Task: inverse folding
């Protein structure tokens, strides 16, 4: 088949079986929307009709759910989620086949999905991130058709524009009333923001709320309204709220991580961003939180009040809000239980949907208002392209999530990484799997120096004037290889197991079977 080459020099087939026609990535802002928003069918609910269903099986039969449908789920319960496994077990019991699962992120808890894939119950997967047994099985080629990996904003765009058509959305609802009003801030499995479920609730043909905490009508506050919910099913437990915690949400004590974090804060300061109205996003990992800690010290010393913190919210960000360092938290997902409590109690802690957060095709998403974002990487190359999908062995172990979205929106995008990971260089000539394009990445911070994208001569001058240890990316690569040697290239075959969409729906890369 004829190959086409995208803007990053990645060779792609014109057509991918199980995906369709390939639209190659042409640049972070090159693709303009040429589509309209889709809408589900209009329904009505007569007075006296009841939305409560006795079981998931009853809902499957009433809709009815049939072979080949797309069922969507969300990851606000993260590794504590019970709903995905519960729903797919019902599908298997009823003998359904060829289902497509559109799950915003896949975690180790979703391991039973592998059995459903092997049995032909699930034959398609559309997600933004994956880890654990499902990711390993996909990497081994368990599915005949490739997985679609999107960004958080790209998933919202795909749903709104009809590219990802959802037949039935199953929403894990920590609290619901009997008419379908839902929120995530109360109940035994309170998880905070339901933001990633917003587009599905708005555009799916059928919406099913699964809850373990049914309350008297009307529920308040409402995250997802009754006007979009068809059925409510009460189960014993939708999940374990302790499982929403994202790895470590504690500041790292590793000296190398602390050095990188302190340098990152100095980059933000040297860029002139530590001032009133400062806006910020960072991850939940130890080094990212350490960077937030150093930024906090700078803000306190300068007497600065920031505008907002964006993204997945941690307890550390909640504390900064409480101390008056930021005026608002804009929350699409809670990363720990302190964030859940804050969303319930603080009116300056805002819950928003994935489209508001990061969709590139609307009248302005929140990432566009970011001053600085701090992101991680599994690999980084001399053209500043970033890989957050595959590990050093070529196996899928992540996904863009909001990485590409925030990088595109922020004034200054900083990627932090140890120069070596597991005795392997992180920086190379070309990343194995391109996820976030180098044109949207401004600075790489390592323990051995700081590299600035040649596009940002303005930023390089500011960092040099501040005395930061600048090196170019090629120099950092050579240093890493001097320490650890040149890593062996990973051998892959021609079979494509995953298609990586950029946030605008073009293809930035593919993952081939190792």
Result:
């Amino acid at each position: 088949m004829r190959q086409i080459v995208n803007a990053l020099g990645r060779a792609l087939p014109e057509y991918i079986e199980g995906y369709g026609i390939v639209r190659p990535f042409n640049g972070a802002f090159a693709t303009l929307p040429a589509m309209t928003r889709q809408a589900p069918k209009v329904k009505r609910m007569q007075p006296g009709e009841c939305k409560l269903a006795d079981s998931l099986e009853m809902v499957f039969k009433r809709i009815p759910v049939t072979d080949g449908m797309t069922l969507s789920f969300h990851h606000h319960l993260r590794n504590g989620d019970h709903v995905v496994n519960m729903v797919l077990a019902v599908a298997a019991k009823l003998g359904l086949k060829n289902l497509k699962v559109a799950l915003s992120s896949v975690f180790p808890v979703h391991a039973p999905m592998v059995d459903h894939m092997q049995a032909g119950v699930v034959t398609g997967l559309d997600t933004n991130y994956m880890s654990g047994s499902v990711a390993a099985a996909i990497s081994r080629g368990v599915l005949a058709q490739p997985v679609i990996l999107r960004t958080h904003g790209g998933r919202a765009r795909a749903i709104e524009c009809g590219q990802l058509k959802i037949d039935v959305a199953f929403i894990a609802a920590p609290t619901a009333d009997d008419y379908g009003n839902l929120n995530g801030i109360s109940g035994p499995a309170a998880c905070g923001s339901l933001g990633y479920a917003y587009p599905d609730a708005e555009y799916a043909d059928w919406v099913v709320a699964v809850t373990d905490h049914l309350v008297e009508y009307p529920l308040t506050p409402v995250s997802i309204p009754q006007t979009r919910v068809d059925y409510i099913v009460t189960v014993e437990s939708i999940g374990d709220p302790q499982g929403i915690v994202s790895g470590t949400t504690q500041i790292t004590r590793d000296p190398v991580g602390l050095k990188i974090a302190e340098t990152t804060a100095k980059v933000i300061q040297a860029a002139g961003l530590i001032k009133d109205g400062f806006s910020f996003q960072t991850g939940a990992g130890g080094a990212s939180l350490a960077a937030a800690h150093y930024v906090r010290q700078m803000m306190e010393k300068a007497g600065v009040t920031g505008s907002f913190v964006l993204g997945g919210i941690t307890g550390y960000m909640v504390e900064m809000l409480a101390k008056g360092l930021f005026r608002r938290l804009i929350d699409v997902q809670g990363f720990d239980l302190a964030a859940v409590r804050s969303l319930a109690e603080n009116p300056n802690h805002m819950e928003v949907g994935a489209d508001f957060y990061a969709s590139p095709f609307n009248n302005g998403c929140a990432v566009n208002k970011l001053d600085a974002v701090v992101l991680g990487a599994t690999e980084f190359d001399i053209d500043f392209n970033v890989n957050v999908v595959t590990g050093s062995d070529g196996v899928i172990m992540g996904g863009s999530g909001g990485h590409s979205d925030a990088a595109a929106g922020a004034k200054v995008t900083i990627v932090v990484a140890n120069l070596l990971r597991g005795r392997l260089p992180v920086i190379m000539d070309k990343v194995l799997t391109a996820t976030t394009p180098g044109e949207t990445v401004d600075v790489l911070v390592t323990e051995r120096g700081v590299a600035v994208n040649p596009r940002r001569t303005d930023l390089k001058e500011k960092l040099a004037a501040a005395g930061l240890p600048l090196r170019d990316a090629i120099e950092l690569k050579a240093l890493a290889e001097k320490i650890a040697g040149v890593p062996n290239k990973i051998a892959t075959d021609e079979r494509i197991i995953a298609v990586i969409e950029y946030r605008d729906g073009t293809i930035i890369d593919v993952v081939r079977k190792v």
In short: Residues 197 and 454 are 39 Å apart (CA to CA). The chain has a mean pLDDT of 95. The longest helix spans residues 286-302.
